[in-house]
Amino acid sequence: MKLFTALLLALPLSGIAAPEQAGNFDYYSANRTMISHGVQAVLMCNGLFTSHRTLQQVFDQELAYLPNKIGSASGGDYKIDYKRRAVTVGSSTTGPAIHAAFREGLGCIVMSPQQSLSDIDSLPQLTLPPLPGDPATIPWPDGDLVTETELPAAIDQAALQAAADWAFERPSPEQDTLSLIVLHHGKIILERYAPGVDMHTRTRTWSTAKSIAVTLIGELVAQNRLQLDTPINLPWLPELATESADPRNRITLRHLLNMSSGLYPVDSFGMEYATGSGLAYWAGASSVEGALRRGAIREPGSFWDYENYDTLLAVYAMKQALGNEEAYHQFPRRALLDKIGMRNTLLSTDRFGDFILSSQVYTNARDLARFGLLYAQGGKWGDRQLISKQWIDFVRSPAPATAQTGNFYGGQWWLVPDKRHDVPGDAYATAGNRGQYVIVVPSHDLVIVRRGLDYAKQGFDRWDLTREVLKAIK
User: Would the pTM count as exceeding 0.70?
Assistant: First the structure.
């Protein structure tokens, strides 16, 4: 369990710093500089053009966790092209200039170092028309019209307010809560936002995106277009003369979704911002090619290792099952987002058009509340069963490789660890860097959404939040 805790803490803290081991030369320093510029470019671009925040807000919050950010809201070695909705960070004097550009329906896409702003039109975009109707006039949960009513007798208002204060009034400024929503029996009983944030503000989900990915994949499993326990049949790289010679052909979709592929770790152990998926997130590399090049080092299913590339391989299997680019790009909206009114959610791709559904999603608190509500309702929305109960059982079942370390992870959802006895054991949650949580508590018909822009040591605990909210449920 100590190793697991250390890895979790390392993910948001790894930043872009070089290794600290004495006497080691950082052979990845050029990568770290390039990724550093790309991180800032993507976060600035999305902060300005996806979230519609001010440049000062972006520097104060979106970029707060970066140890080596360039410049300030007053200026620096970056350029903002408001007409093209693009941001460039870096130059020939500080390292490679990295561009990120907003694209309709997708959010900001990072470009490779050799590209320029003249290449923006070659980047993917999604031009599906928006859902009809004005959400302000459509009742919750399909829309945003909420009628204020008195709290049910089962809710202790003072305790609920105390839970909200606990979430917002943190002992450290590094724990920066932006929004908190609590649903009970599907109704909003608490909704609170920090100054400068409202119900429309979109921010990055980070790894909460993984739980959206597994939901989409579950739809294809239900249609028998993907199978959970047969080899995923991906075109591994480098290609071998015979498929039987490649041990990776034993990997199943279950292994990937349980973070137990047995493939070589590239994002763990301090390398998240030096190689691996970091090059796709922040430097314009393919999110697919790098995933397909990982070699097998362990028996599939035998070892839990939190890797973005496991999710991205599962998403690539989803793309193969859908058959063509158009169907693939439209699938998230047609299969999920539009059906439950997630109008404010943008799923971004890399520059090659592959969804980065391990992290790169922008949305607001209410859309995530809808997402949590879908699970709380057993996969039903209205009279439609959108997620099978069997799939919900799968995502809530502990990955076998976590049995010896607390049964804390299921299928791209986090579970209550065995050692926690102060919250219901049936609760499960999404989790994203900087404090992005959707918590579902079936035994209390409860959904909790907390969005944050935490930084440095962070420390916000989703199960502590669940405990505090449950004090209000009589």
Answer: yes
Per-residue model confidence as pLDDT tens digits over 260-283? 999 999 987 778 888 999 999 999
Phi, psi (degrees; rounded to nearest 5) at 206: 50, -135
